[in-house]
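Support reply, case 0932

Customer input (verbatim):
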Amino acid sequence: MSKEGDAIRKKRRLVDNLKLGPKTIVLGEKGRIVLPADMRKEMKAKKGDELVAVMGDDGRVVIVTAKDAVNRAAGAFPELRGAAEAHISRRDRESE
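Our regenerated output:
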């Protein structure tokens, strides 16, 4: 397989995996962005929720809720799940 063919297949997978269509987001004052309501709803994010943003080698930014990030990490490292859930619980209680 050629590198060009691999790149095309990778782009198609990215588009095929999109749950919602692309959105234009404007970078505001102090570097702030507003996630469109349909995206917030899909990711079950509400006012005050912590979000985690990561940037891949390709410059793509992925934003997930902190809870989702913990769950994904726990899938990779099951032995950390209990500690991560305890931390989130403790943080949630402290913020009330």
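We compared this against your earlier run and they match. Two observations from our side: Strands lie at 51-55, 61-65. The radius of gyration is 17 Å. Please reopen the case if you see a mismatch on your end.
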